[in-house]
Amino acid sequence: MKKLFLTAFLLALVLPAQVCARTLEQMIGQMLMVGFRGYMVDEQSRVARDILEHGIGGVILFDYDVEKKAFERNIKNPQQLTKLIADLQELSGDDILLVAIDQEGGRVSRLKKNYGFRDSVSQAYLGGLNDLEITLDYALRTAQDLSEIGINLNLAPLVDLNTNPDNPVIGLLDRSFSGDPEVAARHAWEVVNAHRVFNVLTAAKHFPGHGSSLEDSHLGFVDVTDTWNETELLPFKNLIADQGCDMIMTAHIYNRNLDPDWPATMSEKIIGGILRSELGFEGVVISDDMQMKAIREHYPLEQALEMTILAGVDIIIFANNMIYEEDIVSRSIAIIKNLVEEGRVSEDRIRQSYRRISHLKAGLNPLEQSSCSFCLK
Q: pTM for the full model?
């Protein structure tokens, strides 16, 4: 306990100094997470330049390239992936790079058995068993695999409720633990707890709940006004109350009863109001992929960035997978800088996100895992 208090005290001293020492562009760079192509990286790679020149805060890894329609992206085998991640971290220098992946289990798994990784099961399978020890066991295996290759952020657990089993992006893909918010929250907590054993961050998703949707926000605008209900907030509420959220990911869903103007990712009423003020979440909020059609086909990039930041989102993902935009980092930084210079986004708002991100990364210190009783070989 004394160690925790000392760590908090030191962070309180160090983080303000870090914020003061950072330029506006450097702080904006930390707010961006980008996807890229390639099994290896060198200083000539575009992602390397985004790290070296723009100081991006994170990258996201995939095995499948949607635009190319091919399993030809970042992941071949554990050895190759470990080297790729180590090289990315070396490029990032003293700034820890968030290396993210979607490893929920089942169909949403980037680390597959045919690449040399352990097989996984879906959240729906685990929720159906409703045995917390089994969920913990699978989550520990996943967390250990991620930790050993250098991935420090799993974009999981999914805590959307299975309120619509025919939901094309949740229910039909077996991604939800349950339609019962208590069951979903309990299993999600086991996933978070297991990842913390191996010092891997997690992101509960998709706030304020995507389980009732009739459409897929990857493919277009999604309106849940007539299907969403407040029970979808309960897993998030319970996890926040139990300190079970390292990060929370937003949904690109529209609900006119919550905000008549903007989808959740771009809504201050939903992110700033419900998530931060009502539920009391003070940590890092991360967007879903901003290149999904629910955003990209309905809002210009400048407007999407402005409203997302004003809503309270801290990390903005450009997965570069549904479409590939090599210059998305430089364009986004230029746009955000201009928004600040024009007074449409305050510099203090950028500092808020930078502080939250820095505080989150400060906890990613190496663990002596050899002495961990949970290790599974």
A: 0.91
